[in-house]
Amino acid sequence: MTARVISCAVLLGISMVPAIAGPTEGKEVYDSKCKACHGATGQGNPGLAKMLKVEMRPLGSKDVQAASDADLKKIVAEGKGKMKPISGLSAKQVDDVVAFVRTLK
Ligand code: HEC
Questions:
Q1: What is the domain extent for residue 26?
Q2: Structural domain includes residue 12
């Protein structure tokens, strides 16, 4: 009985995972700042693309994923082509949203 309690405590100790910055927080940022234009899965909003007369490449596509994290952060901060800079994000939120974009591939 005692042995069982101890091994249980050991298991709990091992399963404590350090907090990882990234995709989970990034999804919240994405949902509030990017989703309206890029869609829930990054495929792009066809109506918006048509209105802006621009081709929106899916964020999960090879071409977009080939960009470095620094490139993606720059796009968020400075915009690209018809995309305007996204304001109101902390540096960490930008890191997080880039981590989320990486999950779309
Ligand atoms: C108001 C609409 C809008 C919002 C909001 C928006 N985007 Fe964009 N985004 C665009 C459009 C339109 C393009 C295509 C620009 C072009 O090619 O001229 C684009 C392009 C991009 C690209 C480059 C894709 C490529 O083809 O290389 C990335 C990466 C990107 N957006 C990420 C984001 C992220 C991350 C967010 C949220 C933090 C975001 N966008 C918010 C409209 C938006």
A1: 18-102
A2: no
- Is 57 domain-assigned? yes
Which CATH number does the domain housing residue 67 bear? Answer: 1.10.760.10
Q: How far apart are CA 57 and CA 66, in angstroms?
A: 12
pLDDT in tens, the chain (105 residues): 566 665 555 555 544 444 455 899 999 999 999 999 999 999 999 999 999 999 999 999 999 999 999 999 999 999 999 999 999 999 999 999 999 999 999
Q: Going by CA atoms, what residue is nearest to atom 41 of ligand 1? A: 34
DSSP per-residue letters across 15-31: T-PPP--SHHHHHHHHH
Tell me the whole-structure pTM to 2 decimals.
0.85
Question: Which atom in ligand 1 lies closest to the alpha carbon of residue 81?
Answer: 18
Ligand 1 contacts CB of residue 80 (under 6 A):
yes
